[in-house]
Amino acid sequence: MSTDDKRIREFAYQIWESEGKPEGQEARHWEMARKLAEAEALAPKKSPKAAASKAAPKKSADAKPVPDKTLNGKTAAPKTKAKPAAASKVIPPGEKAAEKKPRAPRKPPAI
C-alpha cells in the first residue's frame, strides 16, 4: 500500500467518523478523501529555511525597541490573537455539551 493510499484511508475514516459513522457511504467517503489527499499533495510545501526565516529575530539585551510609524513614533504593544472560549472544547456530533452551573456571587469581606 502506497503512502497516498494510506493518506486516503485516513481521510476517509475521518470523514466517516465526522458524519456519525453512517453505513453504505464508503464510495462517497473514499472519493472525498481522494480529492483531499490530491489537494494536499498539490499544495506548496514550506521548506525548513522558509519557516526559520519567518520566525521573529532574537533581541539582544541592549537592543532598543523600534518605533512603530503608525503610532506617531511611539512603540506599539505586541499583538496577540485571542482564541474564542468555545475553541478549546470541541464536542463530537451526537453528544450534548455539559451545562455549567452558574457561580454563586462572592460575599463582601467582613470588616
TrEMBL record:
It holds the Pfam family DUF2934. Residues 39-55, 74-87 have a biased composition (Low complexity). Residues 39-111 are annotated as: Disordered. This is DUF2934 domain-containing protein.
